[in-house]
Amino acid sequence: DHKNGHYIIPQMADSLDLSELAKAAKKKLQALSNRLFEELAMDVYDEVDRRENDAVWLATQNHSTLVTERSAVPFLPVNPEYSATRNQGRQKLARFNAREFATLIIDILNNLELSLRSQSDLDDQHDYDSVASDEDTDQEPLRSTGATRSNRARSMDSSDLSDGAVTLQEYLELKKALATSEAKVQQLMKVNSSLSDELRRLQREIHKLQAENLQLRQPPGPMPTPPLP
Fold this sequence. Notes:
The protein is an all-alpha fold and 229 residues long. The chain folds into 2 domains: 1-124 and 139-165, no CATH class; 167-215. It has 6 helices and no strands. The longest helix has 50 residues, at 168-217. The relative contact order is 0.12.
């Protein structure tokens, strides 16, 4: 129930990466500015979409010869609207194995949820009876952002080993989405096959017309001499 601020974040404790390197990466994640954190979340979403598309293609590879020659894109393509540094970071997401990538996704979701909760708590505690000066008004966003990051970091430290599970509803929704994607891929392959047949037919017609055109361009032979009376 996102409207009321209720979120269910999967916590696959057995598959999470809890190494020291992962914990250090989590600290860096907590220290990101709001802008960088938003960009990272968008890039991770794109990487999830890329991996799901590749999985669908691999799952349908045995069903048709049309996809056997397809080489999977090993990382996200370069986006000309992004900086070189961001594009490099987006492509490095492909180096994460399934366990590391799942850990990163859950860390981002936890980070986002804690930010929303902290911001909500600050809004509830705000005293609207007091009239703030211009200086206080200018400093309020800075204090709010600092408190949000601080609260989020403390909460993440206490929830490093939190347990949970993927709900049945989430599993069914994901399964339905994959089935829909696979059906679309199958439909596209059928359309591609029909277009290939039509292309071959047009090529045969073109070859036939070229042969007829060449025959018409050949000079006529000598006219036969009429017999003398």
